[in-house]
């Protein structure tokens, strides 16, 4: 186990952002997870988990959801029980997307946005999206299963310019050099 890719079992992804000004439409961000099979780790997702769904086996689900960012601290959270995922899965990618219903918004348009990935009390990733100010979506974490069945975490902060639906199809693609 290396420090770049620590072994993980059950993790939580948390998201925060400040609400929009009172005279503007709300900022709505979402955590999204996509799962990939052993046979096609960079193919189409087997399933997608977001605010309105959970994994068929209950191993990935939203425990908190916000459509406005109102609240204290991290207002949205997704739990991933990787150690319970079927052996047919080899990869899970987690990202954040900004809804574009009320006009084009980027991470640079949203105050105090941040993501935190933790396993118990161990912080795996903390990011404020500052380097993605012009993007509308971003991957933040990738979890891969090795030949022994152990899940590893890989930081994967990468920006995209797409709406949440398109993002779910793009987020598991191979990174471009």
Break the fold down into its secondary structure elements and pairings.
Layout: E1 7-8, E2 10-16, E3 29-37, E4 47-49, E5 60-64, E6 76-81, E7 89-98, E8 114-119, E9 122-127, E10 137-145, E11 151-160, H1 164-170
Antiparallel strand pairs: 1-11, 2-6, 2-8, 3-4, 3-7, 5-6, 7-10, 8-9, 10-11
Describe what this molecule looks like in 3D:
The protein has 177 residues and is mainly beta. A 6-stranded antiparallel sheet has the order 1-11-10-7-3-4, with helices on one face. The chain has 1 helix and 11 strands.
Short account of what is shown:
The protein is 4% helix and 41% strand. It is built from one helix and eleven strands, in the order βββββββββββα.
Distance between the termini: 26 Å
In quaternary terms, these chains amount to: single chain
Alpha plus pi helix count: 1
Would you tell me the structural class of the helices and strands?
Answer: mainly beta
- Give the overall average pLDDT: 91
Number of strands: 11
Query: What general outline do the C-alpha atoms trace?
Result: globular
* Biggest sheet details: 6 strands, antiparallel
Name the descriptors:
177 residues, mainly beta, six-stranded antiparallel β-sheet, 11 strands, 4% helix
């Amino acid at each position: 186990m290396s420090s770049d890719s620590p072994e993980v079992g059950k993790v939580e992804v948390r998201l925060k952002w400040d609400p929009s000004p009172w005279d503007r439409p709300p900022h709505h961000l979402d955590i999204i997870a996509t799962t990939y099979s052993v046979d096609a780790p960079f193919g189409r997702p087997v399933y997608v988990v977001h605010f309105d769904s959970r994994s068929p086996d209950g191993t990935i689900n939203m425990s908190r959801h916000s459509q406005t960012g109102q609240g204290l601290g991290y207002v949205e959270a997704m739990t991933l029980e990787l150690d319970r995922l079927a052996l047919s899965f080899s990869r899970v990618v987690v990202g954040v997307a900004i809804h574009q219903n009320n006009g084009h918004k980027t991470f640079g348009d949203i105050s105090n946005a941040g993501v935190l990935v933790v396993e118990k009390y161990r912080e795996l990733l903390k990011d404020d999206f500052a380097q993605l100010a012009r993007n509308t979506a971003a991957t933040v974490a990738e979890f891969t299963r090795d030949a022994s069945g152990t899940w590893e975490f890989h930081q994967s902060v990468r920006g995209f310019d797409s709406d949440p639906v398109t993002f779910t199809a793009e987020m598991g693609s191979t990174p471009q050099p």
